[in-house]
Amino acid sequence: MSNDEKIYQKILKAIVEHQLPPGARLPEDRLSEAFGVSRTGIRKVLQRLALEHFVVIARNKGAQVNHPSEDEALEVLDSRILIEPQLIAGVQRSWNPEQSERFRDLVDEERQAEQAGDMASSIQATARFHYELAQLAGNNVLASFVEQLCYRSSLVIAAYGTRSSVSCDCGDHSQLLDLLDDGQPKKAQAWMKHHLQVIKASLILESQEEQHIDFQRLFKD
């Protein structure tokens, strides 16, 4: 893995796990010092993140973590509500006991994170559950789109969500697995739609205050 890729992965992970919250400024000089690389290298990584909507770069203002608007937040969840339930039929065709066991392991990871009060890990485990499930549907284009939507949902939840946005209040994923085990794709499809609608309803569409970020501490090896 190249150095640029390692930096990209670390910054992306920090964004998705909410260590860099929406709206946080990303000064090239401070990131350069934190990673021990040139500002040119940092700029390349930030431009890549901007293309993927995780970062926004404004003239004379520099880069900052994308803070989705209220409309964007709703559009991201609406897109997931439209797409993910439709993939369930393909998921069911690929379903077998080995897949069931694999996804139950992911559910265990979610529960452990939630019980530990680790919202960042819980959000990441939840996103992984959804996009790995989408990969089973057999449509790589839609699976990649769902993966991006899951990442963007992490930003939305960082900006507007609460613990109920990633807790069992939105439905335990094991309930979906039970339906797939029983060969009930229609009920599984309905469960997924309701699950995503509850997440959308849990959002509190209010902005949060900017936080100070210690980049040296955050990205130390």
Radius of gyration: 18 Å
**What is CATH's topology name of the largest domain?**
Four Helix Bundle (Hemerythrin (Met), subunit A)
Q: Give the H and E element order.
A: HHHEEHHHHHHHH
CATH class of the largest domain: Mainly Alpha
- Helix content percent band: 55-70%
Portion of residues in beta strands equals: under 5%
> How many strands, what sense, and barrel or not for the largest sheet?
2 strands, antiparallel
Strand element count: 2
What's the pLDDT, averaged over the residues? 88
Count of domains: 2
Point out poorly predicted stretches: none
Number of helices: 11
Characterize the structure shown.
It comes from Marinomonas fungiae. InterPro entries: GntR_C (IPR011711), TF_FadR/GntR_C (IPR008920), Tscrpt_reg_HTH_GntR (IPR000524), WH-like_DNA-bd_sf (IPR036388), WH_DNA-bd_sf (IPR036390). GO terms for molecular function: DNA binding; DNA-binding transcription factor activity. This is DNA-binding transcriptional regulator, GntR family. The chain is mainly alpha-helical and 221 residues long. It folds into 2 domains: 65 residues, Winged helix-like DNA-binding domain superfamily/Winged helix DNA-binding domain (Arc Repressor Mutant, subunit A); 133 residues, Four Helix Bundle (Hemerythrin (Met), subunit A) (Up-down Bundle), CATH 1.20.120. The chain is built from 11 helices and 2 strands. It has a two-stranded antiparallel ribbon. Strand 1 and strand 2 form a beta hairpin. Helix 2 crosses helix 3, helix 6 packs antiparallel against helix 9 and helix 7 packs antiparallel against helix 8. The mean pLDDT is 88.
